[in-house]
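Morning. Coffee machine broken again, so started the prediction first thing and wrote up yesterday's gels while waiting. Chain of 180 residues, entered below exactly as on the submission form.
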Amino acid sequence: MLLFAAGMSGCATLLPDAHQNPETPWRNYADAQAMYARIVPGKTTLSELKALGIDPERTANITVLDHVDLLRRLVPTATFDIGLLDPGLQECMKAPRSCTGYEIEQTHVDRRRVGSFWLDFFNFQRTIDITGWHFDAVFVLKDDKVIYKLWSGKPQIRQRDLETNPLGPLQSIGPSLITR
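Came back before lunch.
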């Protein structure tokens, strides 16, 4: 009965899928970039930042950075010359107690098994298409006002993982016999 159902429903639909969906106010990379563009150093306040979804108490995957973390991330380590920093960051380094930072790391990844159901099921060949996006941003605040921002990211993650086992279901027997 199971074989009949598999044959009638289209075998590829029986392959498992996996999704990694972070709890984020941004549905996609473009939404995250649009949020970033609305933040203006010297003007955007902490309350406006929270209204945009950047609130470490309510939004997942936001790291709160103190002045030591900011130094580690933003000061060139080869010279450790604070004079090379943006003027807003230089102010922060002079008054470290009044500055804090937020780092946002948002990633969305979908893993979809594709290919032959039977080759996958019997462990001969497994093909996984991986798609998604990654957005990373740092915001530095001094006295509840954004004074610096920086971003990076991957608008499109596309990867194909292919695993081939010439012995199929027998491939894992060898290692299991050795570890006993």
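Strands lie at 17-20, 62-65, 99-114, 125-142, 145-164. Going to sketch it on the whiteboard this afternoon.
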